[in-house]
Design brief:
Number of strands: 0
Shape: elongated
Largest sheet: none
Oligomer: single chain
Strand content: under 5%
Helix content: over 70%
Mean pLDDT: 76
Number of helices: 5
Structural class: mainly alpha
Amino acid sequence: MNRFILFFSTLLLFLLTACTENASTSTEDSESQPASSTTTIDYKKLSSSFCDCAQSLITLNKEMEALHSEGKNEEFLAMTPKIGQEFKATLECCRKAKEAQSSAAVEEQRVFTAISNNCPDIPQRLADQIAKQL
């Protein structure tokens, strides 16, 4: 009988500690998980915002492509600082658009795919840079 009580007490103690550990682990897990588990990111909406942010950069890029194809190298080089500034402004706009929707981390590949699918005028290298830098 004593062995049965000892065995039962040990088993009960084991079960109680296991349940307590599971409860504290699940609480810790939910606290340490990023907001993305509770916040859904609408990648199509996000990519639409990114398209809007990138319009002036897209226009400059097209102008630079035209200058390059026409062999107007001096004018092309003169626009280089402007495109760098516009790229920074575009990234900042994209960051603000992303933060307005969610503070959760975005998935780089999903951002790239959404931009590529929803913003046909954005060059692939620009879509890649936006996706990587958010």
